[in-house]
Write a structure and sequence with these properties.
Layout: H1 8-20, H2 23-32, E1 39-56, E2 63-80, E3 83-92, H3 96-109, H4 114-141
Length: 163
Amino acid sequence: MTTTERTPAERARTARVLAGATEAELADLWRAWGDDRPDVEHLRGPEAGLVMVQARAGGTGDRFHLGEATVTRATVAVRGSGDEAIGTAYVLGSHPEHAVLAAIFDGLAGSALRERVLADVIDPLERRQADADRRRRADARSTVVDFFTVARENDGPDGEDDE
């Protein structure tokens, strides 16, 4: 493996997709990787901790502290053929195996196996997550009530209601 440079946008995409995947999905993908799996050394963690979550009033207003969230992080070195790549992952919640698997795939995405990781891991996971988001939005949209379609029962010239 040879370490390859990735743009910040590529790193962000990889981190977002891996953190959004389930631990079971990543475990299945890692098992499917086959016999040519690289050696993995834990450099940091996995370890859980707290982060302060900030929000904005109205989405664009002043910042305020919303509260704390548990996050698990892991950093691993993936080695194969004498070369090494470093992968790091942060996942919401206390999920050490999820963080390690995400870090492994992050490291592989920065190696000579980048194209395989994108084709076999990142792209399929991203499609599944987008489909799930579309379904959730459609379900939420189906519950919207349009109050402008409700007509008044008595809309006579005197303006009085039947109540």
